[in-house]
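Sequence in, structure out. Go.
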Amino acid sequence: MNRNQKLAVVIAAANLAFILLFPPFDAYSLASAQLPVFAGFNFYFNRDQYMVVNTSVLLLELFVVLINASIALLLLNKKTTEGKRYRIGLQNATLILVAVNLVVVILFPPFESVYAITKAAIPTFEGFFFIFARQTNHVIVSTVLYLEVIFVLINGALFWLIFRKKKQVALTPEEAYKVMMELRKRGG
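Output:
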């Protein structure tokens, strides 16, 4: 592991610690104790009795940080030399776009009003709102959020495989000599 990869691991660990210290909370109101409403991000040890950690969003945040850390480790696995400029390839560009997409998906999750909640498998939603600008009486639609993340990851994996470089097979001198002798036998 080179220096840049170690730095990426340290940054990922700091992000994980920060996410665990300030998790997303849902709050149960006194009027409706059955339906939690997204209450924003608070310090874990400073919550009140009506707040519960939104584990589905918390797990999604943790997975996004771990996936982005893995992407950073892949991108930083090659050392650059001083005389050579690092040229970004299509695979690396795909990894960067996947990381940016995952961050955007988490920052702008789908919300729906608590008044429009149904028991459907894929619920309706009102729109994508900035997660730190809490909407009153709105909940995060975790099903749609998970679908977004899955589609970003599947598309990223497909493009990463499509853009991989075909490796040239280099023959050893012994193999090249054998091929040359076989061609001579067939031709003559």
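Check: The mean pLDDT is 82. The chain has five helices and six strands.
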